Amino acid sequence: MRLSIKYKLFFIILSAHALVYVSMYSVGYNNFARGFREYVSRIEERQIPALLEGLEQFYIDNQTWEPIRASQQVWSDLIAFSIESAIDPDLIATSRRLQYDRPVPGGFTPNDWYYTSEYSPARPYLHLLDANQLIVRGNPGAYIPELVTLNPIIVAGDTVGYLAVTSRQQLSEQADVLFAEQQQNDFFILASVLGLISALIAFPAATILTRPIREVVTGTRALANGDYNSRIPVRSSDELGQLADDFNTLAKTLDQNQTARQQWIADISHELRTPLAILRGELEAVQDGVRPLNADTIDSFHQEVVHLSTLVNDLHELSLSDVGALIYKKEPMDLGELLETCIDKHGQLTSKSNLTVTLELPPTHPEQELGVFGDPDRLLQVFDNLLQNSCRYTNGGGEVHVRVFEDGNHVLVEWFDSAPGVSDEDLAHLFDRLYRVEMSRNRAKGGSGLGLAICQNIVNAHDGSIAASHSPLGGLKLTIAFPRYQHALD
Q1: If you average pLDDT over residues 389-407, what whole number do you get?
Q2: Eight-state DSSP code of residue 3
Q3: Cβ(86)–Cβ(80) under 8 Å?
Q4: What's the gap between Cα 277 and its chain centre?
Q5: Percent helix, percent strand, percent coil in the chain, to nearest 5
């Protein structure tokens, strides 16, 4: 079964919390057990001074440990009397000598903690050793030298014996064991409750965190099905919010591209149908005898074929430039010389269009040579196209002014022509494919609406830029910038 990202995130959060709780449980319980044993040991150690004092007094009175060796009762009574003396100092003042015939010293009864508690001084791992560290009284099986603390019994400056206390390694008192087990159960219950709380928090959190992802998935499926109007809400400013915003941008771009593609196909169909319809109409007129087949008719046929051929060639060249298939043979060159060549080449066309063309170049010396690194044929194609557009769309008697100069690390070409001008709305679309300001007039003048788009692709291939604005002469201004070639031209 394939888990969704929501459940994966839920289990990740829950697992992380569970790991933290298990670690807390292990560390907390172990620390508690060790600390509790140390606490019990400290309680026991507080009884040691009283026991030592009682043992010292016993040895002073008897000068031997034999009574203790001979009787367990003497050993037990001695310990009880010592502990009670620590509790009631007046007892020692009234009776310095232990009376062994008393069954239970100091008022202790057989059911008191003294006899029943593992923490009583009478516990089995309390041992009395003689001066040679031999066991006088105690359980030999509970005597572990590695775990024993020896407390010397000193009388008149001599060590007459030792009180050996075995360190506690585990809890043995039933009440304490039950208490420790209860704490362990409490730890487990606490960890379980915290795990449940984590699950109750993790599942809604995973749901909320994955909601934007689900919306992106839904929107992506809609895009895959062709619904480019699909949008998803931007709910935050984090990475998921940025993802949603990028998705909306993508959907908008795809919608625009689809609209542009549909418009592009419609425009191409229209542009191709127009000359074909004209040709068909004139041919049918000739076939029906409505129009004679003479030189004027053939010339009309030729014009439409040329127009159709120009449109097809422009479409082909534009498609090549779009995919980067145009071949560029770049070399150091001078833009000033290239523009002079272009203007001279179209002298007859500008004269026929009754236009005055002027070229403004900076003073000619090596420091101001207009050097760029480009393909002369492709750049000449750009300027040919611009000059043909000016001749095609500028009113008779107008002028075209071309200015070339250096600006830092760039060489700029400013192309001005006179009226008619272009509206602000049209300026933004001049480089769109098949876009023309006046469709009927442009078709009448032979334009395909692809020239500026081709120019833009060629300029971009030279790492340059081209922009349109209003001309001070009343028409259109085009500004083209190329990176300046840094070495002087030979």
Answers
A1: 89
A2: P
A3: no
A4: 58
A5: 60, 15, 25
